[in-house]
Amino acid sequence: MYRIGAFSKITSLTVKALRYYDEQGLLRPSARDESGYRLYSEEDYQTARRIALLRRFGFSIAELRDVLRGSGSDDELAVYLQEKRSLLEREVRRKQAQIDALEKALASFSQQKGEDKAMEPEQKTLPALWVLSARFCGAYPEVGAHIGALYKAAKGSACGPPFSLYYDEEYREGDADIELCLPVREGTRGAKRLAGAKALSLLHIGPYDNLGPAYKRLLDTARAQGLNCLSPSREIYHKGPGMIFKGNADAYRTEIAVPVRPAE
């Protein structure tokens, strides 16, 4: 039997840690001497080795409790280690996605000064158009899934960049009211006429996930000019991803146009 000091040395677990594991019910000493000092057995040593191994791989106290309760052999322990590996791999992928998002955010900061100079809102008249359209309720990235079908239906009669109409006044998650439109020549089967409108417009250069500041600039300009913004707003995709390849998102060119009228 080993007293706690010696047991600490042979297991590379601090005395503080051993006391904590005792309190948590993970590694209780097999006995105590007449003075109440903890005494650890060979079996306790094997448990301590397992705990040290599992803590090294980031197992939480709750996970340790599960593993120690459910693994009586090395083969059973290996199953838990494989599960932990899968969890860590998923965590690595999640962290990498966060890093990628941070990289985009950092890149957008360096772009914004140049983009702000390009994003000068202007009043313009959106002409009446004949369009093929697909209206759906869903997430914003789903727009791309409908473009191919519209081009196929157009059968070569497309005559302008596709655009989306957004009927919601607010940002929505997963249930936005969207109509994707493709300008086509008059007489195209299935086409409808979209009326023109007075609008406040600006050109956004860069990824779609950085459109928020552009919308803010439009809304601020409308307020300063005494204009009311109307629905649906429009995003015109002058340059974006192709049908197969996404291309360089930093070079995407998206015109945002919001119908306006003088405030009463």
TrEMBL record:
Transmembrane segments: none annotated. One of its GO terms (molecular function) is DNA-binding transcription factor activity. This is MerR family transcriptional regulator. InterPro entries: AraC_E-bd (IPR010499), DNA-bd_dom_put_sf (IPR009061), MerR-type_HTH_dom (IPR000551), MerR_fam (IPR047057), Reg_factor_effector_dom_sf (IPR011256). PANTHER family: MERR-FAMILY TRANSCRIPTIONAL REGULATOR, REDOX-CYCLING DRUG-SENSING TRANSCRIPTIONAL ACTIVATOR SOXR. It comes from the Bacteria. The keyword Transcription regulation applies. It comes from Anaerofilum hominis. Keywords: Coiled coil, DNA-binding, Repressor, Transcription, Transcription regulation. Residues 1-70 form the HTH merR-type domain. Residues 85-112 form a coiled coil. The keyword Cell division does not apply.
